[in-house]
Amino acid sequence: PLAQRTLVLVKPDGVRRGLAGEVLRRIEAKGYTLAAVELRHADEALLVEHYAEHAGKPFVGPLIAMMSSGPVLAIVAEGQRVVEGFRSLAGATDPTLAAPGTIRGDLARDWGRPVIENLVHGSDSPTSAEREIALWFPAL
Ligand code: DAT
Ligand code: MG
């Protein structure tokens, strides 16, 4: 089967805490290939597009504010079933409940605003992955 790609973001909380390298390490240790890695400060327009599926939900305002509070490390990872594979590495959305052994379970917690500071984003399907990669890395 052909290789697949996914978009991973180390969110500003993760970059601020010095965990960008640890996330890259876990992606590489799992055996996926890095196709692109770039530190960038996302503007609001990009984030509104990125989170289009959540438009109108109560957490989207605070989410976009958090995501634009500092630089993110944007990563394109590649390999068979990498979309599912990275979601498995990342763990459940709520970092308080994410299983130990996962990125969120091991490295993230609730700091007073439930769920939102969960360290990483990973595309949720191959279709979302290609849409998100086109947004973040138009040249790829
Ligand atoms: P995931 O990032 O696991 O794919 P999602 O796509 O449902 O989760 O939500 C996108 C992000 O929005 C998530 O990483 C953190 C934030 N979020 C989701 N549900 C939330 C909630 N109930 N309260 C606060 N933030 C939330
Ligand atoms: Mg999602």
TrEMBL record:
Enzyme class, broadest EC rank: transferase
GO molecular function: ATP binding; metal ion binding; nucleoside diphosphate kinase activity
Substrates-to-products reaction catalysed: a 2'-deoxyribonucleoside 5'-diphosphate + ATP = a 2'-deoxyribonucleoside 5'-triphosphate + ADP; a ribonucleoside 5'-diphosphate + ATP = a ribonucleoside 5'-triphosphate + ADP
Positions bound to ATP: K11, F59, R87, T93, R104, N118
UniProt keyword annotations, A-Z: ATP-binding, Cytoplasm, Kinase, Magnesium, Metal-binding, Nucleotide metabolism, Nucleotide-binding, Phosphoprotein, Transferase
Nucleoside diphosphate kinase-like domain ranges (all copies): 3-140
Active site: H121 (pros-phosphohistidine intermediate)
GO biological process terms on file: CTP biosynthetic process; GTP biosynthetic process; UTP biosynthetic process
Annotated GO CC locations: cytoplasm
EC annotation from Swiss-Prot or TrEMBL: 2.7.4.6
InterPro entries on file: NDK-like_dom (IPR034907), NDK-like_dom_sf (IPR036850), Nucleoside_diP_kinase (IPR001564), Nucleoside_diP_kinase_AS (IPR023005)
Location of this chain's protein in the cell: Cytoplasm
SUPFAM superfamilies referenced in this protein's UniProt entry, alphabetically: Nucleoside diphosphate kinase, NDK
Cofactor(s) this protein cannot do without: Mg(2+)
Function per UniProt: Major role in the synthesis of nucleoside triphosphates other than ATP. The ATP gamma phosphate is transferred to the NDP beta phosphate via a ping-pong mechanism, using a phosphorylated active-site intermediate.
Subunit relationships: Homotetramer.
Family (UniProt): Belongs to the NDK family.
Alphabetical list of NCBIfam families matching this protein: PRK00668.1
Protein name per the record: Nucleoside diphosphate kinase
Organism: Cellulomonas soli
Organismal lineage: Bacteria, Bacillati, Actinomycetota, Actinomycetes, Micrococcales
Gene that encodes it: ndk
